[in-house]
Amino acid sequence: KKKLKGQNQVNYSTTVDTARTYYNSDSADQFYATVWGGEDIHVGIYEREDEPVFDASRRTVERVASLLNLNENSSVLDIGSGYGGAARYLAKTFGCHVTCLNVSKVQNQRNSQMNQEQGLGSLIEVIEGSFEDIPYEDEQFDVVWSQDAILHSGNRIQLIKEVQRVMKPGGEFIFTDPMQSDDCPEGLLQPVLDRIHLDSLGSIEFYRKAAKVTGLEEIQVIDLTAQLVNHYRRVLETVDANYQQAVADSGKDYIDAMKVGLNHWIDAGKNGYLSWGILHFRKK
To answer: Which domains does the chain have, with CATH numbers?
Structure first.
């Protein structure tokens, strides 16, 4: 087991706490567990327009994992791990040990239950905590992994400093995140930001600069922005096709607000205001 820092008090920033409250709600839990893909609740990589969200989301995990050299001796920290789909894939495929750090008690319970059901309890540890104050001592992990979670940070520079701190020298930080485009005009993302209770999104340029100042070198950035619109469109189609069941599971107010939000993401993506891709850095 990895060495935890001495103090166990979790301090959540306002932005992280907002995400925590949201993902702990029954409506959100039901929605992400059923409509969004269940194990993997992030943007998918689609090969066909009508592909199930689950299949495309799993392909993202496979694509990101293919960029790493993992084995049974590797230790991975997944920050913002959701239901733990990536952790289970990595543990099953490579035999590595994965630590899931996540703010949502509800998601963590579902994660732990699926780990036990799939016989992976010995390889995966699930911890409640904030990625802005990672509760581990320095230089503990070979890889820090994240999928579409860093947008929920109110202090992304602090988060990257924390990632750098807990990685071993030569360790790798690999993540995806919904971002604004580098040339997005001021104010035009407000409908998207209001929906997810954020003041800003990161951008590829922002993460490049932040990585550099915290002592990380860039390995590669793979721009997959087109997949962002594909994904939100596909989730919206899935909601529409299963509307009555979704309302029964999550409530009409939640689902109708989700549809409005998904359309904001789709519109912003089509207008070139958003970006998404795989960002890969190494600790010097």
So the answer is: 14-283 (3.40.50.150)
